[in-house]
Amino acid sequence: MTDLLTIGEAAKRSGVAASALRFYEDKRLISSERAGSGHRRYHRAVLRRIAFIVFAQRIGLTLEEIRGELDKLPGDHAPNRRDWSRLSAGWTSRIDERIAELERLRAGLTECIGCGCLSLDRCRLVNPGDRAGRSGPGPRYWVGDPRPA
Amino acid sequence: MTDLLTIGEAAKRSGVAASALRFYEDKRLISSERAGSGHRRYHRAVLRRIAFIVFAQRIGLTLEEIRGELDKLPGDHAPNRRDWSRLSAGWTSRIDERIAELERLRAGLTECIGCGCLSLDRCRLVNPGDRAGRSGPGPRYWVGDPRPA
DNA sequence: CTACAAGCTCAAGTGAGCTTGAAGTCAAGT
DNA sequence: ACTTGACTTCAAGCTCACTTGAGCTTGTAG
After folding, report:
1. Which residues pair with B5 in a beta bridge?
2. Helices (H) and strands (E) in chain B, counts
């Protein structure tokens, strides 16, 4: 047992399917070396990278965005504590905004739904301004959001 | 100006695209009558229904689930305050769970990322148990989640 | 009467994030 | 030598929530 992992081992340890790991590699979120056979060999460090990816996904980042973050990691040394935490610096506000929205929605459950104000043009809970962003279910351009060119 | 809306008016008032309204109708989330011409005519009440849909989506329900909720509305009278609020009864806990997760994630930003514990098999922040559900980005069966039969 | 905007249907396309299948290679055990 | 299982690539498939386009009809303003 060296400290290089096969894709199966990496999948098992991370809980992420091998097919997903190949997909991530294809999208340049992770990288591997190859054994003589052509089989992937992962450094143990890939596990932390994968953890970071899963973490970031839960927060709501797309793989594209996550790749952008990972690209900021230094290439000259193995990323340390500070390197990782720098990446997540901006996330707190993102989380805070989402929590704030959920709290407003929760308040609306008792205050707003069913009352006369549940109306898209009048109720601040579901007004178009709040519908920007992509944190809802499914990949869609939020109603009222201009599509990217 | 009767109290029946064309699809264009409904779209404008709700902020939801006409194509989406047709799509919702196709999926039986809303309904319309037809003018002699075959054009859709919506009752004003559809606006509240649409508001409910948008609201529920922000909370993280799929259209399928939303349809299930809407089906619970009484057919014998126009839904009133109580009818609507009954629907959202179970949502509070759903929101609370999601908020709790986001708070844990936020805590992890300062405590956990970059430290030795950012490891998928050890860190409670990103462990597989927390990865169930569909509240993240994109339609996917969360890693480790069994696919529905 | 003529534009032209708005509506219709139906099929196909989009995007994210994967999974699945086909067809083949490689490594280990019996 | 043979089987089994893990791996490879590449293309195609899948879900969700829509949007877009083609081709046609309807409604309205001048």
Report:
1. B42
2. 6, 3
Cα A13 from Cα A31, distance rounded (Å): 16
Measured from the Cβ of residue B89, the count of other Cβ atoms closer than 10 Å reads: 9
- A/B interface, count of CB pairs below 8 Å: 170
In angstroms, the separation between the Cα of residue A31 and the nearest Cα of chain B is 18
Alpha carbon distance A123, A133 (integer Å): 19
Place of tokens 């922000």: B58
Cβ of B55 less than 7 A from strand C:
no
Residues of chain A whose pLDDT is less than 70?
A: 1-2, 109-149
pLDDT at B68 > cutoff 50? yes
Which two tokens mark A102? 């959920």
State both tokens at A81: 């504590």
pTM given for the model: 0.77
* Option in A101, A109, A128 nearest B92 (CB): A109
**Distance of residue B37 Cα from the nearest chain A Cα, in angstroms:** 28
**Cα B100 to Cα B82: distance, rounded to the nearest angstrom:** 28
Contact assessment for residue B61 and residue B68, using Cβ atoms and an 8 Å cutoff? no
What pLDDT digit, counting tens, does each position of A84-125 carry?
A: 878 877 788 888 888 888 888 787 766 665 554 544 444 555
Chain B window 43-62, residues with Cβ within 7 A of nucleic strand D? 57, 62
